[in-house]
């Protein structure tokens, strides 16, 4: 589906979520793994991001999730407030085999809290769980950081397709829950 299409017609509502984290942690692989055949990756070169849509049935509603990826812009610290604007969810990714990407999670969180919605659903993801031989961040560390910061947490492997679906779906369900409470 292209950006210009009338995307709202066939779903009950649409929301935006963003992928963030250091370069090389696996963001675009997570998104393309999640997209499978059901997704179509589109890009909007003018703002240097890529995004994908997916329709997800939650209770009796059809929700269209629009997931934004940085398309490598984070490398140049070129992520701007427009990237976060209107996002109801964020998937903050680090690489369990790269300590520095975990250390940088706090910087990404600071940026998220500065530019993002205050009630944004944030999922912390330790990707590349298949690389157990070169693990530099223990699962417990990810878990306790998430607990301390009030985030959801999961380890994933985009390569082996472990927990990828779960991460995106959990985020969608949580966003749906928050949105529903606001409407009621
Ligand atoms: P991005 O810069 O965050 O979008 O990262 P990419 O998705 O481009 O991935 C960076 C590199 O990590 C690529 O060489 C991927 O093949 C590799 N990669 C991504 N996810 C995994 C994973 O779950 N396991 C392993 N072993 N490699 C991965």
UniProtKB/TrEMBL annotation:
Sample GO molecular function, one term: GTPase activity
Cell compartment(s), UniProt: Endomembrane system; Golgi apparatus membrane
UniProt-listed GO biological process terms: Golgi organization; retrograde transport, vesicle recycling within Golgi
Gene Ontology cellular component list: Golgi cisterna; Golgi membrane
Keywords from the UniProt entry: Coiled coil, Golgi apparatus, GTP-binding, Lipoprotein, Membrane, Nucleotide-binding, Prenylation, Transmembrane, Transmembrane helix
Signal peptide range in chain numbering: none
Family of this protein: Belongs to the small GTPase superfamily. Rab family.
Protein name, UniProt field: Golgin candidate 2
Full-sequence range covered: 1 to 184 of 878
